[in-house]
Amino acid sequence: MILNAGTLVTMNDEREVREEVHVVVEDGEIVDIADGYASGNDVIDARSEVVIPGLVNCHTHMYALPIRGAPLSVSPQSFYEALVDIWWEVDEAFTMDDARLSALGSCTEMLESGVTAFCDNYSGPNTLPGAMDAVAEGVAQTPIRGMIAFETTARNSRDEALAGIDENERFIRESEDDYDRVTGHYCLHTLFTNPEEIVEECVDRATTDDRPIQIHLEEGLVDVHKSIEEYGERPVPALESMGFFDADVIAAHCVHATDEEIEILGENDVAVAHNPYSNTNNAVGIANVEKMQEEGVTIGIGGDGWDPDMFETMRTAVGIHKLKQTNPSGFDNAVALEWATIGSATVMGMDDRIGSIEEGKRGDLVTLDLGPNPVLPESAPYYVVSAASRADVTRTIVDGDTVYERGEGVRSVDSADLDAVGAASAELWDRL
Question: Are residues 293 and 312 located together in one domain of the fold?
């Protein structure tokens, strides 16, 4: 594949923005980025467009898709009530078909909005065992890259938690090789829904399989209060005492982490998946990303299953961090694009392959039509974050292959597939 780019936002170490260049991809890998435009009938013409790396969503829940628009009668007044009254009811109602179709629908949306890689955590205890195969089938029908895991929880029983850990191990060891772009990892729902023995068992399995563990950490205050009640200390030092950070850890949210806890995260090389839109929607608070940056914590960005448009998620990050400081210059817009590309790729351990446009990386690119205004190299990342949306995505390219084109949809997904996604959602609503 050869692509002519009017403006190329590379997100390389120098955060270089280049104009009037062409990108050459061979066997899925970027082999050259050269000045000037190439000619030829097969050259992709993005001379009037902005080209960015494929976006990376480092924390999502694809099984949230069917709940959009659901006629729910509950009105939670706290984050914990939302878990009990909505999400724990939803995941108990999920079927294998729901697992597969919610993954298919979500991956289609992500590709339409320029996301080429994601890290997902699925919860559906009544679909064990085999849940991860159902999710993987939905993902693999599309050309996206995905890390998937079953969300381990002992909220109902210790045996159910062990079944969740077993499911992740089974997928990694027995099924993962059946898929080209889908890999498994481990996930603990939270500390407050998993006792110490489950935490330690998950660490043992994850370190044996050399896979990361993702955990929801201090998303709501319930996590803090339960930890103090059970262990006499806040979640981060409690987890450190359990040896949790012996594993590679992706900590989602960290909204209520104190300065001292953030220092512990930094000392243990814990990566953070920041979810600004979800945190706003759930009214849980604003993570202290400024302290995380001071401590050298790797930060990526996720939609948490709520927001299908990563551009809106980036803008939410900009807005809440400026608002927190009551300073319109209190947050650098371009950082949000870093989080959504190379930052999230680093969180997922994939920064050697994706997250930036440079030789040796995979050919994951997104082309954007940002309208008539000129695009200047010094302001291009700011323009993308402040003005772009999923509607501006003209192409999503994975491994040098155009897998989504505006007006044509996602390759290998047709209207019958999307009708099936909608029908499954309606049936789930009836069960709820």
Answer: yes
**Residue 31, pLDDT score:** 98
- Asked whether 385 and 368 are in contact (CB, 8 A), the reply is no
Question: What integer pLDDT is reported at residue 306 of this predicted model?
Answer: 87
Residue 11, domain CATH: 2.30.40.10
Structure-block tokens of residue 47: 């001379």
Mind listing the pLDDT tens digit for each residue in 194-253?
Answer: 999 999 999 999 999 999 999 999 999 999 999 999 999 999 999 999 999 999 999 999
The yes-or-no verdict on residue 307 having pLDDT over 90 is no
User: In the chain, what is the straight-line distance between the N-terminal and C-terminal CA atoms, in Å?
Assistant: 47
Residues 28 and 118 in one domain: no
H/E run at residue 261:
helix 259-267
Mean pLDDT across the chain: 97
The domain of 27 spans 2-53+361-410
Q: Are 87 and 406 in contact (CB under 8 A)?
A: no
Written as six digits, the tokens of 261 are 């806890």
- Provide the domain count of the chain: 2
If asked whether residues 225 and 319 sit together in one domain, one would say yes
Count of Cβ atoms closer than 10 Å to residue 141 Cβ: 18
Half-sphere exposure of 256 (CA within 13 A, CB side): 17
Confidence of residue 308 (pLDDT cuts 50, 70, 90): confident
Q: Is residue 40 pLDDT above 90, yes or no? A: yes
71 and 45 in one domain?
no
69 within domain boundaries: yes
Same domain as 325, residue 219? yes
Whether residue 401 contacts residue 395, with contact meaning beta carbons closer than 8 Å, is answered with no
Cβ count within 10 A of residue 216: 25
**Cα-based angle 355, 262, 194 (whole degrees, multiple of 5):** 90
**Cα separation, 355 vs 23, whole angstroms:** 15
| pLDDT score, position 278 | 96
Residue 52 parent element (H or E): strand 44-53
28 plus 60 within the same structural domain = no
One domain for residues 293 and 230 = yes
